[in-house]
Amino acid sequence: ITVGKMLEARSKGRTTDALKGLMNLAPKTAVLVRDGQEVTVPVSEVRRGDVFVVRPGENIPVDGIVLEGASAVNESALTGESIPVDKAVGDAVSAATVNQSGFLRCEATRVGEDTTLSQIIRMVSDAAATKAPIAKIADKVSGVFVPTVICIAVVTFIVWMLVGQTFGYALARGISVLVISCPCALGLATPVAIMVGSGMGAKNGILFKTAVSLEKTGKVQIVALDKTGTITSGEPRATDILPAPGITEKNLLEAASALEKKSEHPLAKAIMARAEEIGVQVKEVTDFMAKPGNGLTAALNGEVLAGGNLKFISTQADVPADFKEKAEALAQSGKTPLYFSKGGKLIGVIAVADVIKEDSPQAIRELQNMGIHVVMLTGDNARTAEAIGRQAGVNEVIAGVLPDGKENVIRKLREQGEVMMVGDGINDAPALTRADIGVAIGAGTDIAIDAADVVLMKSRLSDVPAGIRLSRATLRNIHENLFWAFIYNIIGIPLAAGVFINLLGWQLNPMFGAAAMSLSSFCVVTNALRLNLLNIRSTKHDKKIKSAKPAEMKTIEVKETKTMEKTIKINGMMCPHCEATVKKCLEAFPQVTSAEVSHEKGTAVIQLNAEISDAELKKAIEDKGYEVVD
């Protein structure tokens, strides 16, 4: 038991590896613009307000706002979403995300510990520090059992001496009690079953990091699943091809692939992959231009090719109402419709989507049959999320969730029951650590794997119910072992103590007691080895636990709250009474969530949840007889 606890304590230190991995994501240098010259400096020297540049393929060093340029930025490191986000002037960019296509000139807004990446690192650290391990049943039992048995042995010796037996006889009875009740069976009951259960998991590609994780997995009541890369494949694919009248699917794909060939966007790669599948010859285009947030244009055989969203294509060609309806239906089902035109005429629509993994719906059904409430978490909008959730068959969809939002959702779910979080991205690390059990998809990032308690090496969602089955079977086996160990001791101790000598003439020789003790240990080990015969894929013996929530599906959109801090410099405040007056007048505004006023510093620091003009704030304060300086 002691050796087992030592190994378990060592494995818990893995969380520090997750933090190191997150820190390694942050770029080490930044290219600043100083006096019109580009200067490479360590990222620690970047200050708020500095202007930095990022070329295609480079990591963005700190959080900022785009001042010049346009590009597609891969934010999967933070959001987990596989499709890059188009950025233009005025858009926010985050540290550790990758600039994929264009040149960006940005102003630093959050540096050092204030960046989004640093906040995620801090959340993983905080969540790891607050997770408490469960105590082992055998530890508790052995702590009471050993001193109790020693007391029984001493009492047995004293009683036989008091009734007139010889010293040797009384000592033999006491030794028999100690030998037959040796807590080997109790000591073996938990570790052997856990060892076999962990081995079974490893054979099936389910890696339990600790004995605690193996025990707790079977007790979960709510399973929260990340969408991208967990329920879905994480790679966009062309799912629907809708050619215009007089145009074949091949004609549409020829034009689309020729246009998308020079694009770096993952949606373009999905179309190129589909064209390759059906053997389309990709033609060369000229005058290629990318219009971030809208689409692409190029020339082919003297005609203008265009592809993009409805708004953009409407400037290139007329889009019939029936095509708009079909595209809207595709959008309602969670797909992204891309419109294509040639020579000023619409030639069709190709829908691209991040498709659900084949085993996801079946795995979710199996979880529900166990009485588990299944929740899907995603950063997508509510409409797309609901469509994916309906296809997957989950009970609840929580949409519009950012990395810190996922951790907050898990915190709230834990108030309703034991929660398992399943994810694969860096953005899932805080939620994986906050959950009672964190499960990482093996094909995911090292950070997610390090932060999790269980790793699914084969990246299959069907391994989640399999892991829960294995955990439940292991727990059941431990309880059986403890039951038989107790029954053996309840019968064996009175027999060894000589309770039945006068009643039935039964007397136990210490050597037979030793043999019986060894046999009990053998029985416990043999029972634990039965776990090797378990079929963790079979649903035959699945039992429903008490569900933490009702089974109907619902969609909740999480709205992220934006906050702003303003500092107002005020003259004329002389005492705490003045502070209270200014505080009261500022907090009267509905946009002000709190105000910290100091007459000594001559400032009021206010937190806002919505915009409010400086003029309004100034007027309110000056109406009370104080002067606003800045």
Explain what this protein looks like in three dimensions.
By secondary structure, this protein is of the alpha+beta class. It is built from 23 helices and 27 strands. The strands form 5 sheets. The chain has an 8-stranded mixed β-sheet with strand order 10-22-21-20-11-18-19-23, with helices on both faces. A 6-stranded antiparallel β-sheet has the order 2-1-3-9-4-7, with no helix packed on it. The chain has a 6-stranded antiparallel β-sheet with strand order 12-17-16-15-14-13, with helices on both faces. Strand 20, helix 17 and strand 21 form a beta-alpha-beta unit. Residues 11-16 and 127-135 have low confidence and may be disordered.
Mean pLDDT: 80
Percent strand: 15-25%
Outline the low-pLDDT stretches. 11-16, 127-135
* Spatial order of strands in the largest sheet: 10-22-21-20-11-18-19-23
Radius of gyration computed on alpha carbons: 33 Å
Total helical elements:
23
Helix-strand category = alpha+beta
Question: How far is it from the N-terminal to the C-terminal residue, by CA?
Answer: 66 Å
Shape: extended
Helix content: 40-55%
Q: How many E strands?
A: 27
Q: Profile the largest sheet.
A: 8 strands, mixed
Set down the secondary structure blueprint.
Blueprint lengths: L1 H11 L2 H11 L3 E6 L2 E6 L8 E4 L8 E6 L2 E4 L1 H4 L5 E3 L4 E2 L4 E2 L4 E7 L5 H15 L6 H26 L4 H14 L3 H20 L2 E3 L2 H7 L4 E5 H5 E12 L5 H12 L5 H12 L8 E6 L3 E6 L2 E6 L1 H4 L7 H12 L3 E7 L2 E12 L3 H10 L3 E5 L4 H11 L3 E4 L3 H11 L5 E5 L5 H6 L2 E5 L4 H6 L2 E3 L6 H35 L3 H4 L5 H20 L24 E4 L6 E8 L4 H12 L4 E7 L4 E6 L5 H9 L4 E2 L2
Parallel strand pairs: 11-18, 11-20, 18-19, 19-23, 20-21, 21-22
Antiparallel strand pairs: 1-2, 1-3, 3-9, 4-7, 4-9, 5-6, 5-8, 10-22, 12-17, 13-14, 14-15, 15-16, 16-17, 24-26, 24-27, 25-26
Helix pairs in contact: 2-4, 5-6, 5-7, 6-19, 6-21, 7-19, 7-21, 8-19, 10-11, 19-21
